[in-house]
Each structure stands twice: as structure tokens, then as C-alpha cells.
Amino acid sequence: MRKFGSHRAACSLTLAASIVLAAAAPTAIAQAPAWEPSKPVEFVVPAGTGGGADQMARMLQGIISKNNLMKQPLIVVNKSGGAGAEGFLAVKEAKGDPHKIIITLSNLFTTPLATGVPFNWKDLTPVSMLALDQFVLWVNAETPYKTAKEYLDAVKAGGANKFKMGGTGSKQEDQIITVAIEKALGVKFIYVPFKGGGDVAVQLVGKHVDSTVNNPIEAVAQWRAGSLRPLCVFDDQRMPYKAKVTATMSWNDIPTCKESGVPTDYVMLRGIFMPGGVTKEQVDYYVDVFKKVRETPEWKKFMEEGAFNTTFMSGPDYAKWVDKAEGMHRELMREAGFLAKP
Prior knowledge:
- This protein is of the alpha/beta class.
- Helix content is 44%, strand content 17%.
- The protein has a six-stranded mixed beta sheet, with helices on both faces. A five-stranded mixed beta sheet has the order 7-6-8-5-9, with helices on both faces.
- Helix 4 packs across helix 11.
- The longest helix is centred in the N-terminal third of the chain and has 29 residues, at 2-30.
């Protein structure tokens, strides 16, 4: 009887263990580690150092490192050749490689449309929209112009090709905005291209150009120092940030260009893409990393200091937005005569 009782107890234990294991199995599967990088990740910037994209990439790198959001390091690499074509083609050629990501700006659209380089955003995999970047009309603070209307009236009175507008690259967003101003107001600038937004701000401080349409983050240091003056923001509403940047002005104090009689608006993508041919798990990994970045105080401070529109998107919504933005750029560039000839 004892032998039977022991055998029955053993069977009961085995059965109980089997039930426990069976119950635990789904949990174990659910908790299995998802994909994560197995080596350093190259973070491509298709623009020069010091500009808005470069500053954002290096801020992301610092936040991710400081907060241990990735086990592998993120290495920023600038590939600005050919108006960013160098960077886009490098990521396109890395098809299936999840250890390479790229931060994008409007040259995602403008570079292939203007040059005919064999690249389209659909060659890449959308990850996340991090923010939208504004454009501001800036002049040197030593000039007499206090409003956009005063400045543009002076440009018009001066006649064609007397005033210089500085911007990043040719046939890209800065020149597109410049052409839109010219068409709206019947003025004509000499457009002077530079390698990046950092250079553009320095050239305006040095009075080598008369105005620029730089991003807030690319000129905020010079504004705070009293060297530059913002005249208007190219958006349909004022920037929401009300903390004082200078002794007298916040971002919110800058009028929209429409308020100033300049019927032109334009915002720029700051987003992340991966090469084509990567898996959903690999994309989800980076989406999760950037969601965590957005919750950090460092990122929130960066967004306010740079006066960014903090819209975030991923998945189908992001892809749909990018597709629509490409169509908008195609039309803007067609109107400006910037499309590459077939």
C-alpha cells in the first residue's frame, strides 16, 4: 500500500509540475527578449555639423547614453555630400541592416527631386517622427528693421537682387521658402547657400548676408547674445513657448509671417528612418527607445529651447504623413522651377 501511495504521490507531483510548467510556458514566451542591437548603431546625419539635424542627433545620442536607453552605443556620423544624398544612399545600400538609422529633414524629399539622385524615401523604413521644426525670418540685430513688413518693404524698394538671403544648400527648404516669399510679395533676393544652419547664422552675424530663414535652434544662441533679431515665424500660429529667451522676448512673442503680411508657411520634418528590409521587431525597438527619450527632462528642455512642434508619429500614420509631405514638396519645387529635368 505504501508503494502504491508513494507512486500516486509521485504522479501527483509530476502532474502538478506539468501544470505549473504549462501555465508558465506562455509567460516565458511572452517575456522572451525582443530584438535589440548586437553592435554599435551608426546614426547618420545627412547634413553638416552644427545645423539643426546634427544638433538633434547629438542631443539624442547624449540622452540615450546618459539614461542607458540602449545597451549598444549610438555613433553619430555626418554624411552631407550632395545635399545629403551621400547619407541617404548609404542607408539605402544598407538594406536589411538594423544597426544603421538616419535622421531626416526636408532633404529627404528635396535632394532626390532636385538632383534626380536614385533615391526615394520609400527605399527606407519609417520609424518615428520626433518633431516638426519651424523656420524664422532673421536679420542682424544692428539693422533698423523691427518687423518683417519693414524689412521686406526695404527689399522691395531696393530693387531686384540687392539683398542677400542666406540659407542651407541649394534647391532645399531654405531656398524654397525664399522663392515663396519672392512670389508672394514680388521681391527678388540673391540667395546665398551655405553648408549648414550653423554657418548660416554665423554669416548673418558677420553681415555677409542681409537675412536668413534659419530654424530656431540654429540661431537661438546668437539671438540670446543680442546679435540677431527674429522677425516672423513661417507657421499659421505662433510658437507656444512663453519663457523669455532674451530679456524682453519669448518664442511666443514672435509674430507669424502671415500676421506680418507674408502669406507663407512651412514646417520641416525631424524624423528617424531605417534601411529597407528590416523587421517589425527591429523597428519597434527604436520606436520604443525614442518614446522613452521623449519622456526625459533633457528632451523636453531641448524641445522648448529650440521651439519645436512636438508632434510624434510612428507606424502607418507616420508613413502617410511622409507621403503627403513628399507631394507637397514636389508641388512647391515645381512652382519654383527646382525639379530635376527628366
